[in-house]
Amino acid sequence: MATALAPDPAGVVAAARIVAAPDGRGATALPVLEGGGPFALRRVGGRGAEARVALVGAMSAPLGGDRLTLDARVEAGAALAFSTTAATIALPGRTGAPATYDTRIDVAEGAALRWLPEPLISAHGSDVRTTTRVALGAGARLLLREEQVLGRADELPGRLRSRLTIHQAGRPLFDQELRYGPGAPGWDGGAVLGGHRAVGQLVVVHPVFEERPMAARPLGATAAVTPLAGPAVVVSAVARDALELRKVLDSWASELNDIIRAF
Fold this sequence. Notes:
It contains two helices and 18 strands. It is mostly beta strands and 263 residues long. It has one domain (13-262). It starts with 12 loop residues before the first strand and ends with a helix.
């Protein structure tokens, strides 16, 4: 089911919505899966109790002036995996207005979500502001990957402002805002990216970390694992490019999954 686009001379206004719920037979159903404009949501093959959804880009977005919203809810007892089929490229629009891309995620008590989109690429001349707000119920499990690439090959980046907030049982767990590109002080200096052009993080929330918290430590020269004030850890990394960044994050996703399975 597609949602109507609101007319806007500066850009596209579009929304998408996902609801995952138990199907009563030990698996997860998708009673709501709808989107319009650049959002084409597709069911893909599930695994066990987990349903899987892939976002297929139906048009170039976000462009300057676009206002995009993606809502996802995983109800108690359900499990959902979300991915995208390609990177999202932020491009300049017809006006100087920035684009906004807001993601709101609600994972109920005891539910599970793997949120694994492809990178956001900040192309030269673009201006995009992204927000991701995650609300977790008690005992909810989350694997969330966020990756940003600053500029295409041999290209300066556009402006990018990104904020990620995660709350569990109403308490703040993680809150980070990042700014890159023209007008962002010191973004390319040694204290931030140090000349690297890919940055990302992997956040894992799981009850296992209440019993077995991880210690903070560096992971080589450009990555680190940090425990959060709750049953969670975050792996943060910078890299020369998207492939190198993904290699680091995937390696630690595998290690953290081994820790969870072994507990």
